[in-house]
Structures are given as structure tokens and as C-alpha cells.
Amino acid sequence: MASNILKSSQFRVLQYNVLAKRYARNMEPWFLYDGLKPEGDDARAQAILARHASRTPDGGFAYKGWPSYAEGILTAAEIAAVEARDRRDFPFERRAPRLLDVIARAD
Length: 107
What we know:
This protein is an all-alpha fold. Helices cover 44% and strands 0% of the residues.
């Protein structure tokens, strides 16, 4: 019976990177859109990643949260631009229609 169902059924397998809520923020060091330039900002990007990962001797984070790990590397204007891009593009309510569009176009 199961083999008959499979013969007459069609399905698609899709992959779409839906970010978990805790990682869907432009203020994460792997994004920082509108703060870092797409080309030529590697040194600043590496410095921010290093600060983000750095720990105190007792194992706590050396730079607790945004924007502490970016301050002094990004300017105040760049930090504001990163936050504005986050409000504009990163809420799930903004991302959900794109996900639904990908699913609809797959059929």
C-alpha cells in the first residue's frame, strides 16, 4: 500500500536558511550590514569578531552585548546605521513574506 502512495505522490524538498530569533539581528558580528563595507573592511570585521568572542579570566564575556564589542571600531554613525538596518530588515515579520514567496515559487 505504501509503495502505491509513493508512486502517485510528488513532493519537493527545499532548503531555506531561516535564522533563529537569537541570531536574526544585524548587530551580530557576522552581519553588521551598513556598518562594515562589503569589500576592504576585513581588519575591522576581524577585530569585532575577536572582541565578540573574547572572554574574561573567569569565562564571562569581555564585551557584554551590542554595541560594546563594536565601539571604538565602528563609528557612532556606523553603529546607528547597523541598528537602523536591523529595524528595517531583520524582524521576522519582514522576513516571513520572503520565505513564503520562495515556497510558492517552488511549485
